[in-house]
Each structure stands twice: as C-alpha cells, then as structure tokens.
C-alpha cells in the first residue's frame, strides 16, 4: 500500500495555556511535557518511511521560521510548509492540504494530525493509523475515538454505531456530541458506546474534497483560490491572503464530520491528550507524593494537588496551597484554582481588549537568525540581550531615531558598519550612530550573545529601514530586524 501522508495542522494559538502559550509562540512550539516541542513530537511520531511520507504542514505564516527550524533540528524534512496569512479554523486548513495532496495523487490517504496533542505511545498511534487505512482507502473519513477514562467535560464525544464489515475494528458513527456538562458526561460513561473525539482523521484526498464540496463549498472555493494564488518564499508556500480571508471560519468537525454519511470511527485505548488547559498538564505530569507537578525552579511546602511552573529561572516558592495552578514567566504570572484553569481563555480575551502585549508575544522574541529579549526600557533608552545563531545574519538596515551600542558577551561577531567590516570578540564593543547602515552576523559554529543599548528619541521596533534581508521578510513585518 502507498504510504500515508501526514498532514500536521499547526495554526492554533492555545491561549488557554497562557502565559506560556501566546499568539507569537503558541503551545505547539513549546516543550510542555518533555524536552521537545509538541510539534516536534507530532512529526517524529510519523517519521517512519516504510509507512508514512514526508509530512505536509499547514502553519501560521508568523511562525514559519520557528516551524522550519524545529523540524530541521529533529531531522524531519517536510514535503511542503503551506503558510496561512490569516487563521480560518480547521476546515480551510484541511481543504488546502487535501488540494495540495491531490495535485500529486487524489487517492493519497491523508492523516490529519493536530500539532499540539500529546501521545504517550507513538507506536500505538502508528499501528492505529495503519489499521484504519483500508477503511479510508475505501472512501471513509475515519476518526479515532478514545475510550474515556473519566467523565471529561472538556472534550467532544462520538457515539459509536455498528461495525463496518471488512474493516478491522472500524465502526459507523451514530452522532458527534458537543462538550457535555458533568452529569451528561457521567451518563455517557455509564451507558457505554461513547468515545472522546480526538480530532485526528484519516481519509483520501479526493474523499475530503468531495465532502467539503457537498457541505462546505464556500470553504473549498476559498481554499482553491488561496492555493492557486500561492507564491514560493524560500522553503515555504504562502497562500493568497485575500482568497483565504473569504473562507468561513469553521472547524472541520462542524463543516463536514457532523454532516457526512462517510464518517467512521476506530475506538481505541490510547494514552492521549489535547493539552487544552492547565488541568491536562497537571493530569499528565509526574507528581510528587502530595500530587504536585513542578517544572523549573520550584520549591513547595505543605502544598497539595498543584501545578507549579517557573520558566524564567526565578524561584517559585509555594506554601500551604491546594489545587492551584501557578505559572511564572519573565513578564507575567498566572494563579488560578486548578478546576477553573479552563477559563484562562476568557481572561486572555479581556487582556487583549486592554491591548496588553503580554498575551501576544513572549518575552523572548524569536527570529530566523536567533532571538532577542528586552532587559530594561525607559525614556530614550532600551537594553536587549541578543542571541545570533550559528550562521545567522540580521538584515542590512539603519535607524532614523536611535543609535545602538553593542557589547559582545559570548562568541564572535562580524559587524558591517557603513563601508567597514569588523570582527568583535567577547568584551569588545562597537557604536552604531543614528542613520548609519549596519548589519550583525555570526559566521561561526557557536552562538553569538551580545548586549545592545539603544538610545534616542524613539526606540520602538518599527524604527528600522531594511536595505537587504536574506530571509525574504517583507518590510511590513514588525519587530523584524
């Protein structure tokens, strides 16, 4: 049989895991349960060339360099990375992926995999995908129903129907059920036949396109136009913004799965979580004898049932707390009862309405050449820590309102200033006057770290005139260096 084409959907924001997950650096890019990010773990689960093709990714264009670098660092080479200039939910993402796959072979079987799930047994998932493949090849859209272990109110449910003859373990779907209240969820467990909706699907490209055409023709038409208007950008394919904006923002479940007669489900026991809220991370974390999960520099006394996390190197000390979530980052702290942690999304919406930058970007801003972090800021000055990765090269640029003073802390910097090029080592510095064209580069195989002091009547990130950029970034991007 032909290999399955994994389609990794990486467009979500994961705001219920704020303050770690933010629009500029969402949960799928974070190492929430181990050393690797959720995206990396998702890609590695299906990195089996005997059964799976190189993955196709659909990602937010704002995250493109992060996604590409994370895949490169774990040795995964994607077939393509399709960039969404605007998020339109999963129906549009599935449509674009199916259209792209069908360009090569409309009979290709696609595994639609969210990038932000945690699965404890990757081999079990691979076996389930291969087990469901014949049903998908026969024209079914197979979803994977997780055998529930508790009356969970945070997941949608699937009511399983009669087995499908000739398809090992696969059954018809009687109904998709929205997230229930506690009493209803308990009744589902008592009745049996109800499964958690995992949000993972397996189907032929042509089957997906046919059902999208039946039930979501506006989504499909917009996806067709967006793909037709795509343009190549380095290793990425940028979808047409105007065309994609015309797509209704609807999930694939609502647009197709709740309406199609081709749906099927493979009931399974799988160590799975969508990590939708802090409660899920507490449930899956390694607990001490008092039921606490601690990540980072944490010390606790007489605490019980807490999720405690410090991600910025500061000490989080806890005394006498019960069933709380406490998460510390450099620029924000979250404290909430664990049972109410799913409400963080509403809190984030309120912070957005206030225009709070903390919900949009992390304190460490990632760029294709490396990253930077604000250390201090005041009237007429700003101080940053800048890390330039091996081979990284900032744009050739100048500033209208500020000067810059760079001090090398670690590594070796190559600096172009005006018409001269200089090499700087640790404890050496250079001054870049206002209006002087300049570029910073790391030509070594070791990280370059420096402190930058900006001075001027304006020190905002948009005070930049880019003259040349090796990463092909448009001038309209902010914080673009």
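Sequence proposed for the structure above (481 residues):
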């Amino acid at each position: 049989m032909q290999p399955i084409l994994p389609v990794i959907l990486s467009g979500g924001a994961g705001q219920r895991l704020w303050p770690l997950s933010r629009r500029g650096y969402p949960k799928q890019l974070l190492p929430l349960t181990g050393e690797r990010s959720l995206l990396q773990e998702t890609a590695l689960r299906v990195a089996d060339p005997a059964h799976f093709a190189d993955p196709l990714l659909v990602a937010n264009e704002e995250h493109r360099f992060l996604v590409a670098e994370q895949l490169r660092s774990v040795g995964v080479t994607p077939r393509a990375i399709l960039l969404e200039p605007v998020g339109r939910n999963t129906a549009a993402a599935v449509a674009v992926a199916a259209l792209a796959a069908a360009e090569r072979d409309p009979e290709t079987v696609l595994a639609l995999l969210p990038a932000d799930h945690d699965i404890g047994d990757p081999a079990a998932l691979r076996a389930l995908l291969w087990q469901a493949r014949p049903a998908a090849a026969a024209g079914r859209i197979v979803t994977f129903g997780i055998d529930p272990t508790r009356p969970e109110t945070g997941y949608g449910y699937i009511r399983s129907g009669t087995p499908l003859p000739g398809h090992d373990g696969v059954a018809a779907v009687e109904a998709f059920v929205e997230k229930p209240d506690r009493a209803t969820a308990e009744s589902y467990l008592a009745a049996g036949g109800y499964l958690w909706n995992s949000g993972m699907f397996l189907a032929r490209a042509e089957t997906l396109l046919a059902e999208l055409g039946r039930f979501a023709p506006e989504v499909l038409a917009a996806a067709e136009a967006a793909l037709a208007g795509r343009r190549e950008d380095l290793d990425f394919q940028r979808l047409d913004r105007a065309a994609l904006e015309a797509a209704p923002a609807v999930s694939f479940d609502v647009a197709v799965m709740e309406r199609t007669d081709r749906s099927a489900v493979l009931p399974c026991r799988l160590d799975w979580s969508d990590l939708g809220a802090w409660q899920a991370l507490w449930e899956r974390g390694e607990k001490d004898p008092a039921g606490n999960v601690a990540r980072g520099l944490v010390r606790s006394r007489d605490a019980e049932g807490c999720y405690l996390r410090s991600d910025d190197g500061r000490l989080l000390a806890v005394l006498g707390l019960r069933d709380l979530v406490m998460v510390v980052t450099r620029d924000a702290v979250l404290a909430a009862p664990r049972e109410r942690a799913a409400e963080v999304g509403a809190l984030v919406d309120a912070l957005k309405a206030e225009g709070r930058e903390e919900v949009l970007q992390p304190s460490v801003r990632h760029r294709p050449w490396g990253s930077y972090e604000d250390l201090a800021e005041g009237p007429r000055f700003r101080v940053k820590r800048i890390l330039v990765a091996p081979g990284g090269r900032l744009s050739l640029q100048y500033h209208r309102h500020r000067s810059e003073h760079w001090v090398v802390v670690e590594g070796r910097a190559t600096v172009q200033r005006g018409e001269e090029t200089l090499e700087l080592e640790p404890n050496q510095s250079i001054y870049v006057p206002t209006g002087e064209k300049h570029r910073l580069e790391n030509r070594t195989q070791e990280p370059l770290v420096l402190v930058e002091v900006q001075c001027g009547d304006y020190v905002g990130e948009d005070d930049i005139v880019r003259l040349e950029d090796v990463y092909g970034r448009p001038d309209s991007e902010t914080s673009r260096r």
